[in-house]
């Protein structure tokens, strides 16, 4: 049997293949690039092996039926609102800095929010990738973005990784001829992160007019990393335990805290441009509008 389509004829046995191809073309599935190309670009920037051993990084959700990627949503934390935002904006992939899947999931049901997210991603065929500590470690990653708040002439990891340029945290030597003071450090951090307020714990005997000659920083919850930095004037991180802050200030170290994810989120805007360029502008890379730190200063 033959079926007429315009001026052409198709054998019925080929008709299903034809309609499948046309369906893909009309839905945009022939556009974009493959998942493997995006993952390769991500791991070119920050190889997965740079992640801490305890971390859960890499490709975390891969739906059964593959599709090409035309739009990627970047987020610091993957909440239900962010997942729905990705669906509404027709994104085929989410890159979530923090891995939403950390502890093993024993079921995928609707009674728990993380399981609902995984269920939604599988249903809507959205891939999920998380880089977390590989982005912290790599040169040009989250910690180096945070360091850009300061005028420094030397930066090294606090805990070195596989080489002298990768690892946890950053130790900065402030430029010698710069009269850089604590109050300037506060304003610089606020300008970089876009925050109206940060928390400041002044070192014993210090005022905001005292000079800063060295900085130790770690994005996120950096208390355990910053303890490894000795003889430093200033700690910068997202959050620290009360007793760690108290110990630091009594040892002559001023502490600036931004809230956990506010020390990380600002990196995404610049990375969106980098990833779009790496993918030769074949993929639109956007930053979530719903993603925000759960804590507000009121």
Automatic annotation (TrEMBL):
Keyword Metal-binding included in the entry's annotation: yes
Binding-site positions, a divalent metal cation: 98, 136, 260, 264
Pfam families: DUF34_NIF3 (PF01784)
CC per GO annotation: mitochondrion
Superkingdom as given in the UniProt entry: Eukaryota
GO MF annotation, one: metal ion binding
Sorted UniProt keywords: Metal-binding
Cited SUPFAM superfamilies: NIF3 (NGG1p interacting factor 3)-like
UniProt KW Metal-binding keyword: yes
Family: Belongs to the GTP cyclohydrolase I type 2/NIF3 family.
NCBIfam families: YbgI_SA1388 (TIGR00486)
Identification of the protein by name: NIF3-like protein 1
């Amino acid at each position: 049997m033959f079926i007429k389509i315009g001026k052409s004829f198709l054998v019925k046995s080929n008709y299903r293949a034809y309609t499948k191809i046309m369906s893909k073309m009309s839905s945009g599935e022939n556009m974009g690039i493959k998942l493997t190309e995006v993952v390769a670009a991500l791991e070119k920037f920050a190889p997965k092996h740079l992640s801490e051993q305890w971390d859960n990084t890499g490709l975390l959700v891969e739906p059964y039926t593959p599709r090409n990627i035309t739009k990627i949503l970047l987020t610091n934390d993957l909440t239900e609102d962010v997942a729905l935002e990705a669906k509404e904006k027709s994104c085929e992939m989410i890159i979530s800095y923090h891995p939403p899947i950390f502890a093993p999931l024993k079921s995928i049901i609707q009674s728990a929010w993380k399981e609902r997210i995984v269920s939604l991603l599988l249903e809507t065929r959205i891939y999920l990738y998380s880089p977390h500590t590989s982005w912290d470690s790599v040169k040009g990653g989250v910690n180096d973005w945070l360091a850009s708040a300061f005028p420094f002439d030397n930066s090294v990891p606090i805990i070195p990784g596989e080489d002298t340029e990768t690892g946890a945290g950053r130790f900065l030597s402030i430029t010698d001829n710069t009269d850089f003071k604590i109050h300037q450090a506060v304003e610089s951090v606020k300008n970089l992160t876009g925050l109206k307020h940060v928390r400041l714990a002044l070192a014993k005997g210090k005022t905001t007019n005292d000079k800063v000659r060295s900085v130790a920083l770690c994005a996120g919850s950096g208390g355990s990393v910053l303890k490894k930095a000795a003889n430093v004037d200033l700690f910068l991180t997202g959050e620290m335990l009360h007793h760690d802050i108290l110990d630091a200030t009594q040892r002559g170290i001023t502490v600036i805290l931004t809230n956990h994810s506010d020390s990380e989120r600002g990196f995404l805007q610049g990375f969106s441009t980098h990833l779009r360029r790496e993918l030769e502008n074949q993929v639109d890379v956007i930053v979530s509008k719903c993603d925000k730190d759960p804590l507000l200063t009121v």
